[in-house]
Amino acid sequence: MTRQQTIETFLEALSSRQPVPGGGGASAFAGALGTALGLMVGNLTVGKKKYAAVEADVSHMMERLEGLQREMVALIDEDARVFAPLAAAYGLPAGTQEERAHKDRVMEENLLHASLVPLKIMELAVEVLGILEELEEKGSVMAVSDVGVAVQFARTALTGAVMNVYINTKSMKDRQKAEEINQRAEAAVTEGIPLAERIYGRVTERLK
Amino acid sequence: MTRQQTIETFLEALSSRQPVPGGGGASAFAGALGTALGLMVGNLTVGKKKYAAVEADVSHMMERLEGLQREMVALIDEDARVFAPLAAAYGLPAGTQEERAHKDRVMEENLLHASLVPLKIMELAVEVLGILEELEEKGSVMAVSDVGVAVQFARTALTGAVMNVYINTKSMKDRQKAEEINQRAEAAVTEGIPLAERIYGRVTERLK
Question: What's residue B158's pLDDT?
Fold first, then answer.
């Protein structure tokens, strides 16, 4: 479980030639770090007289961020879990027609799983960005720069995970399914990147 | 020491109302994660016959990434270390003229330290991006998407840290020094963002 690893061990595992954790797991971790910074902003807002009017809203955002953080951390492990059977499938024999048909079937199934995990990371990252947009408006002015950093982490979850979607859908034989997944990934990018740029732009303006 | 914390503890500390670790430390951590993914690409390249011609170059890039990772991890702690005296300075009395003069001097000194740490993170992030550009050309084709994710982390180190530079230089009395630091920060952004976009664009093209 990633949650119990030290920072040092995680950096070593990420640096190593072992395929997981790799770019997919790192993208989910970026998402988790983005939620953590959002929670920090929330924690610096609730309980302050100045922000009493938005306390209920901010508390609700924090609950959602906590849930999203749990999902993102679980997706680091999930990304590693779906990789092993895919790597094994690449190594299956394909000498006879039966072997080839079996290998194709196993490959297809595992490519699907391996593309759905980063797609999930992307869709959650867009949710995180939606919350951060509201937090930029309602959160403590003292922590506005932390909203900006949170946005950059959520953006990395999105732009990192999308490549791991495409790598896997690229090899899928079921092109209709592959295109359906690619379109969901593109929709997340099309929504998320301008949203991230908009929030970050607002934060930058406020720091001037 | 951040290095020895578990992922769970680090996420909790980042989420809490404690000011450190905050956006500055998280930006340095993003830089460290970017170097780790770069090292993974290097580790998947060296020792392979196919990449024998670039092995010396890639090994040299890896040495540089290891050094940059150590610096980035140290900067997470350094960012926390410079915050405490700054927070204390804000609380100094300013009733008499002598007290005010003393407070101004202490504030100025600590604002300078607190802006130089994120500036350092930014300048190192641009170095990481420079190495990733070469790694995109020479590294294993199997790990090209990991170069793309690494780029996004280095970009977050840059775009996250810049806000922590501006927050601190904004309150500095020595405007010449403040402008000098702001200009170095702007130079890092002006160099780093297009570089990040260029490498990421190339990776995306190669995944199509």
Answer: 98
For helices B97-138 and B55-90, the axis angle rounded to 10 degrees is 160
Residues from chain A that touch B14, judged by Cβ atoms under 8 A, are 33, 36-37, 39-40
CA distance B59 to B42: 7
Give Cα A32 to chain centroid, integer Å: 8
**Helical residues (DSSP H) of chain A, grouped into ranges:** 7-15, 23-43, 55-90, 97-138, 144-170, 175-207
Integer angstrom CA distances of residue B142 from A167, A185, B46, B132, B198: 10, 21, 13, 15, 20
Condensed to tens digits (0 to 9), the pLDDT of residues A38-48 reads 999 999 999 99
- Global pTM? 0.97
Q: Is A4 on the interface with B (CB under 8 A)?
A: yes
Sorted by sequence, the CB contacts under 8 Å of residue A36 that are 6+ apart come out as A69, A150, B11, B14, B15, B26
pLDDT at A154: 98
| CA–CA distance, A162 with A154 (Å, rounded to integer) | 12
- Beta carbons within 8 Å of A182's beta carbon, 6+ residues apart: A165, A166, A169
**B168 three-state secondary structure:** helix
Residues β-bridged to residue B6:
A6
pLDDT in tens, B53-66: 999 999 999 999 99
Handedness of CA A169, A170, A174, A178 (dihedral sign): positive
B89 residue type, one letter: A
Burial of A52 (C-beta count, 10 Å sphere; 0-12/13-18/19+) = exposed
What would the two tokens of residue A105 be?
A: 């079937």
Contacts of A146 in chain B (CB under 8 A): 22-23
Q: How distant is the Cα of B109 from the closest Cα of chain A, in angstroms?
A: 21
Cβ-Cβ contacts under 8 Å for A139 (sequence gap 6 or more): A41, A42, A44, A45, A51, A58, A147
In a 13 Å sphere around the CA of B116, the CA atoms on its Cβ side amount to 10
User: What distance in Å separates the CA atoms of residue B100 and residue B105, rounded to the nearest whole number?
Assistant: 9
pLDDT of B1 over the 90 cut: no
